[in-house]
Every structure is written in structure tokens, then in C-alpha cells.
Amino acid sequence: MPPSSRTFKVHTSILFDPKKKAFLKNISIEVDQASGSIINVYKRHDEDRTTFTRHDIDLTGQVVLPGFVDSHTHIFLHSYNERSGIQQMRDESAVERTVRATNHARIALLSGYTTYRDLGTEALGSADANLRDCINRGITPGPRLFVATDALASSGSYEIRRENRSTLEVPVASDVADGVDGVRAAVRRRVGAGADIIKIYADYRRKVMRFPNTEGADRILFPPDRRNPAIPLYTQQEMMTTVDEARIAEVPVAAHCGEARTAIFAARAGVTSVEHVFEDTYGKLDEMIKELVKNKVIWVPTLATAEAEAPQFLDWCKSAVKKAHDAGVRLAAGGDTGAFHHGLNVREMELMIEAGIPLEDVLEACTVGGWEACGGDLCGFRFGWFAKGNRADIIALATDPRKDRKALRKVSFVMKDGQVWKKDGVPLGLVNYPQWPDEEAEAESSDEWTELSTAQPTMSMSVPLPVCRSTGSLS
Ligand SMILES: [Zn+2]
């Protein structure tokens, strides 16, 4: 058998099928190692293991799911609890940020996340596209990245603020674009720079210098009730033009919306997704939900970063997301991961469950929902469910999430593109050592099967610290 046709099977006893939103028994998945894709999914007739071969992977007794998709991440950011976003953008070297991102990618993969929808480098230009390509070449392990490079924002909006020192040079954290011609050109620039997805700041908070939320020397004696509200950055026409140009370029659009009011603008423009929505100052939630449903717009609520960065909004966010889900809004699970620790991504799903959304719907939002948020077939791949031709992204949990509310934290097995990165809870193959030529073995056989499961762990992963609450800017 030539190497290009080598296949193996992954046998399961409990498998979550997100298309059916059901846990199925005794399913096996056949994987083609050469293409990294699934070539068959079938039900075994009984629990007999005698058909299992030594090339197969036995995941019976574990709970098997498609690899998770985090629909809102920042691979170059680490927890704002460690260093604020502004400090990371301003003070960290490109090398430090890249080394950190490399570690984040490994941790994400080992946590069951085989795809990241990465929404902006935060002042590192299009380095995310370069990291994506490194992962795709197998130079370093990590989730499949779909990247935004720089986000679009109107003049003076995002970020780092410098109105008090207007001559100060600061790193550029967005692609500044104004007017319909301006946003059209910016979409073209982003796509040219390697973006898989367009991110646009539909609104942002611009009064942090005026009314900082701090005590001490820069305390404001009599601040307004809303110190730093999220204010629209674009007209309806500008957003519609952004979407129009992105459609021509065949890339999805993610719109940062702090306020429900702005999400209505974005939904009417036909964006693929709205991100966040932490506030509803103008009582527009019902209208927003209606527009999201009508325009088939995905909501990525980023509850995990609300919990970590803006806990005062969390209860409202949870109730709003539940209401939206009940009304038929399409949800995708994305934590704004990076503002809190990569590796704790499943916190988003836990919060969605806490909000009252059924487990099966949450798992679907973190798999099929993620694929749709990446643009669906526009992204060039299929993943997030088990079917012939899909990427062989397969993970397993050590315990059953129907019984154990912390099961999502217990990822015991990870396969991406048919390659195993974690087995029995132990990381595998994260470092590639060059091999001396084995002349004897070469002479003996050029067709010996490489055992998938015999690789030894080559490095131990540090365990991320728990999420801590702090104040900071959201991205
Ligand atoms: Zn973000």
C-alpha cells in the first residue's frame, strides 16, 4: 500500500454529533492520514472490539466530539490580568509576542481547539497571517487559524489613545478607514495583507483619557454616569460598503459591537457576525434580536471576557444571550480569548450553559457555529462535524459533559488533520527531532507503518493560571 492511501479508524462508544445535536453510540470514523480528512463515518453493529486493528485508535469509554472552534480569539494577546492590552501593544517586542503566540497556539490545541477565528493582532500588523502559515506548514503546532490582521476603525477610534500627547508615536492598532471609498480600500488592503476575515469596529469607547475609571492622581471629581460609552464609528452606508466589498473578496465580516444599538446597524449591513454586545443603553435588545434573526447574523457573545474584564455586565449578557437563543439567533462560541488565558477557552461554553442554553446547542455553537463564523465553505475547509471530506479534527473528553459540569476542561485526546497531539491526557509530538538515517530499516522495508500512538511526550505544558478579574480595554 503506498503511503498516500494509509488509513486508520477512530473507534468511539459515545460520540457527539452536532448536526443531530445528539450523543450517538458505537460510531467509528475512518481517517486518511495523507489528506488529513475523514473518509467514512459508520455505526458499528455491536461493541465487539475484535475488528479493531493495531493501526486504529480506541476512544471507547471517552466522549468524542469534533475539534472545538473558538470564534473570537487574539493569539498575540495574553491575559490582561498579567499585562493590560495597551501595555502589550506598546511595550512588548514583536519577538516576545510571537513566542507567546507560539505557546498560546500549543496550549489551545491541547485544550481541544483545532480552529481559531483570530480577530486582530492588536498592533502587530498582519503577523497573524504569518503565524497561520507557519502552523499550516507544520513548523509549529496549533489550531487552524483564520485571521483578521488589523481591524478597520474610523479615524481616532482604535487605539492607543494619544489626545493628550498628539505628537506621541504609538503602535498602530487598526487599519484607519473613513468614508465608503475608504472602507472599500481598507477591505482590499486587509485581504491583500492576508486576512481571511474582515473585522470592523462598529463602535468603540473613546473617553478613557477623559474619564478614566481609576482612583488616585487621575481621579475625576464628578464623572458622568457613563464614563466611557461605546459610540458608533461608522455610518450605515460605510458598513454596508464594507460588507459589499468583503462579499466580492469572499471573506466574512465580524463586527465589534459594544452596544445592542450598534449591532442593529451591523446586522442590517449584513455582517457575518456581531461580537460582544455587553450593553443596551437604549433598550434595543428586542430589536437587535429581530434583526439578527432576519439577517441570519451570528452572535459571538464573548461571555468569558465579560466575566474576566467587565463582570458588571455579565448577568445582563447571559440573560440577553439566552433570550436571543430562544428567539432563534445563531450563536457561535468565542471567548475573546487572549484577554484571558488561552487554554481556558471552554469557559465560554460553561457560561453559555450557565445562561440556560442546552448543552447540545452550546457544543453545536462551538463546532458547526464556529465553522459558519469562519465563513462556512468560503473558508476552504469543512470542520466542526463528522462527515466524509471534513478535516479529521477529533477530540475526546475524559468525562461526560451531561453528568460532569467541568467535563469540557478534561480534554484527553486531540487530533487535528489526522495527526494526534494528545492521547490519554498526555501531549504528544510537540517537538520534532531530526532523525538519523536508519539504513537497516530502510533496507528491510520502505512500507512499515508508523505507529500513531507510540510517540513519547516531548515537553510538559504549563498549566494556565485561573481567570482573574481586572479592568482593562476590550478588543
Ligand atoms: Zn476581541
UniProtKB/TrEMBL annotation:
GO molecular function terms listed in the Swiss-Prot or TrEMBL record? hydrolase activity, acting on carbon-nitrogen (but not peptide) bonds
InterPro entries reported for this sequence? Amidohydro-rel, Metal-dep_hydrolase_composite, Metal_Hydrolase, Metallo-dep_Hydrolase, OTAase-like
Keyword vocabulary terms for this entry: Hydrolase
User: Spans of biased composition, class Polar residues?
Assistant: 451-461
Bias kind Acidic residues: ranges: 439-450
Q: Where is this region: Disordered?
A: 439-463
Residue span, Amidohydrolase-related domain: 63-419
Q: Which PANTHER family match?
A: ALPHA-D-RIBOSE 1-METHYLPHOSPHONATE 5-TRIPHOSPHATE DIPHOSPHATASE (PTHR43135)
The protein depicted here goes by the name: Xaa-Pro dipeptide hydrolase
